[in-house]
Structures are given as structure tokens and as C-alpha cells.
Predict the structure.
Amino acid sequence: MGSPEHSDGLRWQLADDEEAGALFPDERRATRHRGTGEYRGLEFLHVNARRIINSVPGDSLGFRYTINPYRGCSHACVYCFARPTHEYLGLGIGEDFERKIVVKVNAVERLRAELTSPNWHGDLIAMGTNTDPYQAAEGKYHLTRGIIEVLGEAKNPFSILTKSTLVLRDLPRLEAAAAATSVRLDFSIGTLDREVWRSTEPGTPPPDRRIEAVRRLNAAGIPCGVLVAPILPGISDREDQLRAVIEASLAAGARSVTAVPLHLRGSVREHYLGWLERTHPELVARHERLFARGAYQPRAERDRVARLVSGMLPPRNEPGPPVVGRGERTASPVQEPPARSDTGIPVQLRLV
């Protein structure tokens, strides 16, 4: 990495939105490190977090505490709901979000200290609730690896939501943690369509490799489910596309399969529709109709997707809790209270 440069121009402030600052500490200084070699084109902003275990407002998500060692994400998913978190740093939600990655370099040390606090009572900690803990930066910084080790040593239950096969690097550590506490993994696999994948998630591993990771994790005794998320209108919502990813997930031993239709909040809407105008202009009018009344598609459309997906799932499928926000719910294959996995850990549905 290049030599660090001090930057005092970034705005590090808490925000009121549940997916933004409320999940993060209030860091106020950063040092810049430009990526080289396989990380060329990325810029890493090193910060020291004041805390690393963060509480989540409300009780609708199935978990109360989360850890996010990184902000920004090189996976560059065009629909990523976490993009606006960069706005609170004075950065952009487009290329800045994909290329300027905040790294909480003291995450492992902070976690070790916070787990020993008398105020901590061993609650479930969810990872992957904002940006992916196994994005490219993890290959260099190993923060998620350290976090897993510390949580395992403390016998503290945790769950991880990811799109990255880099998680397999830590399989021995996950197995060790699972021997001591409850551990749950979920993969986000929105489609097996290679063309759709390349266009919408250019920084992620191919979907078939993610399916194989689901198989390997379950074979190793690590419960792993799949989120078919998000389902993109006119792009990945055909019956044959959905059937392909659902059947592959079930064949890989997925403990649950949950479908999540696309939703567009805040500035993500403008970003996504701008991408759509460049790549699928024929779909812009349809999306404007679907999202004319807010962040969520009409109930009828969500119910249509739910019925379609539920017909492809076995009766004992254990879906995760529906995504909740702004008083609305996305469609879930079954409209029931949030289900738990067989480990007792709720499935998380936030990386959509």
C-alpha cells in the first residue's frame, strides 16, 4: 500500500436512518491508503472505531446487534441499499461507494474489549447487515476472520450474510466457532443468469461458485441458507430464472430459501434508475410505475412473486423474516411471523 495521507475533510456523523449512521460509530479521522496490485483502483480509508458492536433500532429485523468492519463495498451491486451510507461521510453513492472503502482497523481489538464488558450479555451479533464483510478488502485486512475467532472464543452466537466465496477461507474457524456457539451463514444469490450477474453485481464471485460455497458450508456442518435477493423486475424475475436458482440452492443443501423483491429507498432509487436508463431503457417506464408510490412495489406484485416462489419450495422450507422498513414488508414465500433456523438464529435479510 502507498504511504498514508491524513484527511480531515470527511464528515463522520451519526444519521437517523436505520440503515446508515445508527449502525455505525462516530469516527472523526481517517488515513488514506491507495490500493496496489490486485487492489489497484481501490482507496482504503483507515479509521479507529469508538465501538464495534452496534445496536439496531427497533426489533423488526430478527437481531439487535451488528458488526460492520467495512463501509462502502467493492462488489458494486447496482441496487445496493447501503450506498447512501457514504453520503453521511461527504462521499458519493456511486463510484466513491465502490472504490473508497472505510476500514475499521481496530475492529478486532474493540470487539475483544466490548465482549468482556459487564454490560454485554452475549446476544446474537449479525454481520453483513450493511456492506459485505467478505468483500475484496477482507482479503487484505482479515478483520472478519479476526472477529469470527474472537466471537468463537467468547462463545457468542453470530450470523453472516455474504455474496463472497472468500468465506470458505475461514471454514476451519467457522467450524471451531460452531463447536462452541450457534453460527449461521446465508448467501445472497439473486440469479444464476450470467449476463444478469455481470451487469448487476460486477464485483462479486459468479453465482454458481456461491452455490458451491453453500454446499461446502452445509457439508461442513455450518447451517447455510440462500436469499434470492433482490428479484429485479424484467431482469431476473422470470419463472425459469427463479426456478434455476431455487432448485440449485435446494440441491446444495440450503437450510432455507427466501425471495426478496427489489425495493428502492432514497438516493438508491435515482442511482438504480440511472443505471437502468443506460442498460435497459425499455424497462424504465415499468419501474417508474412499480415504484410510483414509494420504495416498495405494489402489494399485488409482491404477492405475485411470493406465490410463484412458494410453489417452487418444499413444504418444510424455513424462510427468514421479511425485510421490514418504513412500515411496509416485502413479499415473503409464506406470510408468517419471522422464522428461526434450526440453530435458533434468525435469518437476516438486509443485503438487498
User: Anything to note?
Assistant: DSSP finds eleven helices and 14 strands in the chain. The two ends are 31 Å apart (CA to CA).
